[in-house]
Amino acid sequence: MDESKQYIAVDFGAESGRVMLGTISTGGKLVLEEMHRFSNGPIEVDGSLRWDFDRLLSETKAGIKKAVAQAKGKISGIGVDSWGVDFGLIGPDGRLLERPYNYRDCRTDGMMEKAFEMMDKRSIYGNTGIQFMQINTIFQLLSMKLGGAEVLEKTDKLIFIADLVTYFLCGEIFAEYSLASTSGLMDMSTGQWSETVFESLGLPIDIMPRIVKPGTKVGQLRPEICDELGCGPIDCFAVGSHDTASAVAAVPAEGDNWAYLSSGTWSLMGIETPDAIINDDSFGHAFTNEGGVCNTVRFLKNIMGLWLLQQSKKQWAKEGEDLDYATLTKMASQAGAFAGYVDCNCEKFLSPGDMQSRINEYLEQTGQGKIKDKGQIVRVILESLALKYRSEMESMEKIASKKIDVLHIVGGGTKNELLNQLTANATGKKVITGPIEATASGNLLMQAIAVGQIASLDEGRELVRRSFDIKEYTPQRSGLWEKQYEIYKSITE
């Protein structure tokens, strides 16, 4: 490994963003320093849900400025990652035409059905390999096309959120492979935009930018940005620009019989494969194939993760009881086990709102009793999540013909130790958690690989194992969980 180098990782999540300064030392350790953290979330604009992109860009530059000062200007690269599917539209003058839509906006209601009238559902999946969710870019773009959105006529290029931030930093237009793969518009067999899908749905392929691989240098900070931040030119990289691609890059795994779970607002659980798995079984079980780093594919399932808990917490705060996550988790640990089950991926839970009421609607509709106690609601969410993980893992093992012995959980959700233990209990697998800042770590690793400081993904994962504490959970009370799993399936399937 070469001399110590410093990199900046900009990591956007659906609830918060952060700018991290990472140092990879000659001693072979990755050290992270949080330079700037800021809140994120949808804003309402004329009845629609949007992202406040101007503020996100401003917060990004504030964080970079702090990192540059901390590193005394010695920065080897900047990489940006974010959630997938959402995008901004750029006009011929290079400016953002409107605030980007939030994927939870209702404009995609009914769009999947309209798309399937224009192109057979199985044929779309055969091209894209992507799990059908109404939030996907393909359905967002179709809603604009069918709705006659005037902004589409003015659009020169569509740029995904992380790449949009990089564009405003360095001026280069591109679509990073892992982000592009979440759209439902990319042909997984070629890694390029699917002409078949665009033609069948009547979508404008000319607005789509070139696709670049993770670890590509895409440009340098523009002179005016350098002046604003008080720094010299810094290289900008396309990393695993989809946050889950970066998170998976930093999974401290060894061997082959492991799966990952990137735990946050969304839970993304899957395995790494050399090629996409697109067949009738993967289609029937709604598994997705997304681009990974270093010539890998992430075969996974999107699960509506801690969103249900986040929305419950937000509603309770509105009602006057602002409880932090640690308190809510403690309340759940003291609540009774197996009081009820929900399918966390039920569409009724997708949009923001009063989640406790929706959970109780689901419980009533499935012949279960309503719950008033907040701790009990949280317990239901966490147990249902753990059992959802088991259900999807069993399907994944069967479809991929792969035995999974260890589940690596990374991301902010690793802080919920109750959920980690429930997951081990429900799945019957050893669970290893950490690092918490997996996404930022993977972002930094890909920059280090790009400049040649790290030789390979395996070397990067070894670096992560040396750098961060991890914790293990072993299954408990397996017989009881087997019985409850059968009850869960009878209710949710």
The proportion of residues forming helix, as a percent range, comes to 40-55%
Give average pLDDT, whole number: 96
- Derived structural class: alpha/beta
Distance between the termini: 51 Å
**Count of individual domains:** 2
Q: Got a strand count?
A: 21
User: What percentage of the residues does DSSP assign to strands (E)?
Assistant: 15-25%
Measured on Cα atoms, how large is the radius of gyration?
22 Å
The biggest beta sheet, please? 7 strands, mixed
CATH architecture of the largest domain: 2-Layer Sandwich
The CATH topology annotation of the largest domain reads as Nucleotidyltransferase, domain 5
Assigned CATH class of the largest domain: Alpha Beta
Shape: globular
What does this structure look like?
With 493 residues, the chain is an alpha/beta fold. The chain has 19 helices and 21 strands. The protein has a seven-stranded mixed sheet with strand order 17-18-16-15-19-20-21, with helices on both faces. A six-stranded mixed sheet has the order 3-2-1-6-14-13. A two-stranded antiparallel sheet has the order 4-5. A hairpin with a 3-residue loop joins strand 15 (258-263) and strand 16. Helix 10 crosses helix 17 (438-451), helix 13 crosses helix 15 and helix 15 (374-400) packs across helix 16. The radius of gyration is 22 Å and the shape is globular. The termini are far apart. 50% of the residues are buried. The model has no long low-confidence stretch (mean pLDDT 96).
